[in-house]
Every structure is written in structure tokens, then in C-alpha cells.
Predict the structure.
Amino acid sequence: MALNVGIVGLPNVGKSTIFQAITSAPAEAANYPFCTIEPNVGIVQVPDIRMNKITEHVKPQKVIPAVMEFVDIAGLVAGASKGEGLGNQFLGHIRQVSAIAHVVRCFEDSDIVHVAGKVDPLSDIEVINIELAFADLETVEKRIYNLGKMLKSNDKKVKDQAAIAAPVLDRLKKALEDGTPARSVEMDEEEKNAIKDLHLITLKEMLYVCNVDEDAIHEDNELVQKVKEIAAKEDAKVVKICGKIESEISQLESLEEKAEFLSDMGLTESGLDILVKAGYELLGLKTYFTAGEKEVRAWTFESGFKAPQCAGIIHTDFEKGFIKAEVYHCEDLFKYHTEAKLKEAGKFRIEGKEYVVKDGDIMHFRFNV
């Protein structure tokens, strides 16, 4: 499964507008429900100021930043778990993403219709969360129904997995019946692995994206405050974005124009940059760099990866024939400026197969195949 973030929410909350601004991709946006039917997929660069600093010291011919994938999924409605509004198709798309960005409308505008006839973040969030929980409940109930057969299987692996899954499935069923997401149910690693193949939607990490008007960019309005209260109870993160402003920024051609626009708005970075970085963190992703005269490049890896695994991201041969890695941290480069001075300061290291790569490491792999 790709490491990506699905953008979900009710119709007309601004999902497609935000998606367009993130990726500058031509997602259709219109003032009526179900404008988006097939999910739009966009690749976006991950903002990282460290890249600019590294290039100041290395002077490469080209720079290649890290990227991540966003998927714009059509608006869900009440009854989606029962097939309303092409619900089954949309829920299937959500199952394929790694994490969820739930866009909530936090602005009033009489020209943009709301599917429920009024702007109420609490109600909107409840509709989405209940539909996702009910969809998962159906999945869990099917597995419970088949559990007896699995427990009698002649395949020891199937039988053992079923035995581990049985108690956690009961806990999941109870939570989902109450409209509570699966991620709220305590599970150890063994239990998580036993139900991993269910691909439960509400087990995915989620953040809330408040789509606000220009007045709420600097100071939260009452609608944003309500979303933050819900997020605090769920231990979820909240990102605030003005879709209208981000759409205008995306039309500007140069980085200088964008920086000037943000400065005029009293902002240091765009809401979309904040969202992209939040999505990156939500997926548990980190960045290491390779740096040389030909290129400075950011490579995405999952937290906890060891040196050979990170080498394999560049090429499978690097992992198979891994010998060692030359490593120093980008912050040390910024301090000492050159590899020679890094070595003098003892900041240039040789690491082996058990080295756990850190976010911001600059690496050169030695391998033999």
C-alpha cells in the first residue's frame, strides 16, 4: 500500500479546492455534491528548509526534494456505509490510503450550499466518523462470523491468528457500535497484526483540517474552537487552512511572489505547507539526505528503519550488498560547513547494519553486489 493521505469530508467543505492548491492538479471543483467521483491523486513536495541550507554548503547541479501523495476522495454523506451517495465506492477508496485528513468547513458563506443546510462542524464530524465506524463494524462482524471456521482450520498459522484476533474483535465491535473509531481500542502489536488484513478505516491515523475564511487565519473562530475540542478528546492534530487564500497562492508563479503574498497576509508559511508536513508526520515518515556535486536529494523513510533498509530505498542492490554507511547530521554540516571540519570534530561516522537512521542524517552507502 502506498504511503499517502486521503482527503475526506462532507460535500462542499472545500476538499477539492484544497487539493488543487496542494498539488496544482486539475481536480474538478463545483458548488454541488458528488462533483468528485473518481479520486484525484497528486504528488506534492515536502517543504524542508534543511534542503536549502545543505545546498549552500554542497553546491549541487540539481536538488530533488522528498514527495508524498495526497488523494482527493469524493464527499461522504449520511448513509454512506449503507451505499448512500455512491458510499460503498467512496469507502473503498478510503480503505486504500494510509492516513486521513478530514476537512471540516469552518466558515459561513451563503453562496456555497452545505449538504445539511447549515454549517455545524460537530454534526459534520459526527456524520463522517459514524459512517466510517459503521463501515468498519460491518467488516469486523463478517470476520467474527467466520472466526469459528478459522479456529478449526488445519492451518496452524490461520488458527493461531484467529485465536489472537478473537478478543480484540469483540472489543472493536463494541467500540464501533458506539461510533468510536478502532484506533481508540487498546491493542498490542500481536493483536494489531492479527487484524491487519481487515484494513479498518478508523484504525488509520487522522488529522482535522479546518477550512476557514480570511478572518479566522490569525485568530480561531468559534467553529475552529469546536473542532479543536473534538480533536483534543481524540488526541488528534488540527491544521487550519483558508482554501481561498491557498488557491490564490497556487496561481502565483515564483517563490518570491508567494513569499511576498504570505508576508502581506502576515503569514510565515502557507497553510498547505503546514498540512503537507503534518501529513508526513502523521504517516511516521522521516527524511535522510544524500549530498554531492551532482545532486542533493531527500529520501523518505519510516521511523525505525536501519541503515540497510534506508539504502534499499535508493536501490535494492544497496540493501543486499550493504557494507557500511558514512554518516553525518545536517545540523553538524550547518555548524562545521565542510566534511573535513566534520571529521576533525568527530562528527563524521562509519555506521554498520544495526544503525537506526535519524531524521536529517546525510548518508553515503558502501555496498558490494
